[in-house]
Amino acid sequence: MSSLTEKDRPIVQLLLHAGTCPRCILRFCCVGSQMLYRHPHEDLMKDLQEFLRNSQGKEDAVCLDVADPPCKRIRLEHGEGGADDQNHNGAVPPPPSVDNGSAAMESSAVKVCNVCLGILQEFCEADFVKKVCQKVKSADYQFTSFVFSVSLPPQLSVRERAAWLGLKQEMRNLGLPLAKDDIVQLKEAYKWIIHPQLSEELGVPADGKSLFEVSVVFAHPETDEECHFLATACPDCFKPAKNKQSVFTRMAVIKALEKIKEDDFLKHFPCPPSSPKQLCDALEIQCNNGAVFVAGRYNKYSRNLPQTPWIIDGERKLESSVEELISEHLMAEFKADSFNFSSSGREDVDVRTLGNGRPFAIELVNPRRIRFTAEEMKGLQQAINDSSDKIQVRDLQLVTRSAIGRMKEGEEEKTKTYSALIWTDRAIQREDIAFLDDIKELKLDQKTPLRVLHRRPLAVRCRLIHTMRAEYIDEHHFRLHLKTQAGTYIKEFVHGDFGRTKPNIGSLLNRTADILELDVESVDVDWPPTLAD
């Protein structure tokens, strides 16, 4: 095995004797050749055996002046071979002589690895790769590449530390260095092995930037409690979190391992760790596609339709909403798990949105289908428009996540145009409202309206009415066209909200005024791009 040198001989010998698999031995020997890890488990075992045999008799060979222990199989026949069989003071059991290396490797070949718990053994084989790929194919996703992620049991970090400390002490006795920083990480080695197999089976390349993720979650119930001593030694590292089922997360365990002193670790955990009876379990094989974003503009023609579902105390007040009328079609076509709706501002349930409509965007979470032609998007837009006379959608298109930021930027910066039907308690003539046309850049102080105070903080907001144009109807009615700063409360500007908006139409006309109808005529946000019909 050309990647190993004579200085690796004691590491190979010690780890084989402890029950470590060939790939983990390569990791501890700091072997960085990806191709080597992909060799079959049996071939690697033979190569290690040959390496030990070839090392015998060399002048510079490292000699371990220790007595040969009983065969590991014999030890297991007389006991469980668990933690009680190990030294808790950090002393590594004496390794076998090179002559006995074959027996040690034979034993190691049939045991679950004491470091990786079988992840670099059974879960690198073709059968498991096919199982993963069958799961992916049955989920019916569209993808052109994939990224593979793996979630490992946190106790693997404890076992790796234990194996390393055992080696460190024995190597120190031999006067040889052992640098942990050079050890190949388990996840990295696993991906070196699994990536080419998954890529060949799925027919697409592995790509770290891919939006399609294939993930495997491993667990090992037999050794779950091996992390628990760390909570006593380093209690500050283990704090409950709302979204975590256990405090023993991988990051918490790693943090504790960095903090705990070597002597304290050696008192509580056998070094090297014992071999478990069972392999890891692949608890979950999951697929997830990165979100797809769809944008457009909508018109709302109903005065009895909220923008989002109107639910109070768990009770639905109206049967539908703008977001539901749009999203139900997108969800069905993209085959997504869920969605998130956002828009450039919002209108009240009794307010229509006319003109070019209001910009909106929908994030489709974990979609199975992601590729749509321009014609298919037009067809989807038509299907939405044909399904209801309460809304219409235009300029429906696929966009990027970053592009949605432009919609939100315009929400507060741009202007909006409204048309309000206003009633007055005392009769008016044309000349009574004509002066409104001459008012420019009228500054308002708007205290948070009473109707939204339950969901917005109390504050006084300064807003601008850029222009107004009054259109006389009769003695008690007129229509007011306004161009305003985004975020202006129009209803409150009309009736004053019990003096919370100053000035207001009532105070300007010196009479009581109220709003009967309100329409949004335009939302001046130049996004998303207009599409040709």
From TrEMBL:
It catalyses: uridine(55) in tRNA = pseudouridine(55) in tRNA; uridine(54) in tRNA = pseudouridine(54) in tRNA. Pfam families: Pus10_C (PF21238), Pus10_N_euk (PF21237). Residues 293-524 form the Pus10-like C-terminal domain. Its EC number is 5.4.99.25. One of its GO terms (cellular component) is nucleus. Keywords: Coiled coil, Cytoplasm, Isomerase, Metal-binding, Mitochondrion, Nucleus, tRNA processing, Zinc. Residues 113-287 form the Pus10 N-terminal eukaryotes domain. Belongs to the pseudouridine synthase Pus10 family. This is tRNA pseudouridine synthase Pus10. The lineage of its organism: Eukaryota, Metazoa, Chordata, Craniata, Vertebrata. The gene is Pus10.
